[in-house]
Design brief:
Blueprint: H1 3-14, H2 20-35, H3 44-77, E1 86-89, E2 92-95, H4 96-122, H5 127-140, H6 154-175, H7 181-185, H8 187-190, H9 192-203, H10 205-211, H11 216-220, H12 222-245, H13 260-271, H14 277-298
Antiparallel strand pairs: 1-2
Length: about 300
Amino acid sequence: MKITKFLNEIWKASRPLSLTLAFYSTTLGMAVAHLEGKLFSGNLAFDLKLIFLVTLAGLFVQTGTNFINDYFECEYKNLHFSDSKKYKFLGKKRNSFDILIFLLGILSFLITALLGLYIILITTKKLLLIGLIGIIGGYAYTGEPIVYKKRGLGTPLSFVLMGPLMVMGTYLAFTHYYSWRPVFLGLPISLLIPVLMLSNELRDFERDSSLGIKTLTVRIGFKRAKFLYLTLLSSSYLLTILFVFLNLYPLTALLTLLTIPLALKAYQNAARAEKKGVPITNQLHLSFGLIQLLTLFLS
């Protein structure tokens, strides 16, 4: 394998475009801390260092999840893999590249753990439990022996781990106390995480059904999954309007309504199991999240 192709395959396995999920969730926790005056309130150098460390930890835990997911799912996407040299690894025959992807995933989780321990050292021990749940949950998405994706839990647990848990963890690092407020205020953006997961499941419905991969969409059926996609998508906009009405969000947060045409386009493609449904849903998450985060920071 040529070095450029080799690096390109590693880059693809890390799924860099999906890292906006972790970036937005950590930034969201900071935004709520900022609304409460807990960000940039005293020691600027310390706050900037903490912002960097927390963001990096979030990006590495998702990168690790992506690598592990690629390793364990390669048995499905490479059913007709060429007869290259295989090695017995974790009870199965794998080629050297697959093994490397697994090790990169474990390395990413190790870096996350080291970053987390340092963040705990300079902030609060309350972060320890959240950090452990995040790393274990990231591995167990498709990592054996748990593989909660096959149990129909991939979408709901991705929402919990990448949304509320990461938002609360970031908020906790800056405030040193637990609160449901960041989880509550973060829902409009966080709800787009399961929407993105569902766009993947809807696209792969036929494949997953034939291979016996019991994702949430396979378990509840294509039509119900479409309805769930639309319900969660609509809830992001309705909650934004509600939060503005309750004076929890600034009026400028209504600018997210400008993304409704993109949301309609995303739903139409996802509902038809089109490949474009995934990137368009990702574009929606990018634009919706960016507008809302900017309004929260600038309020």
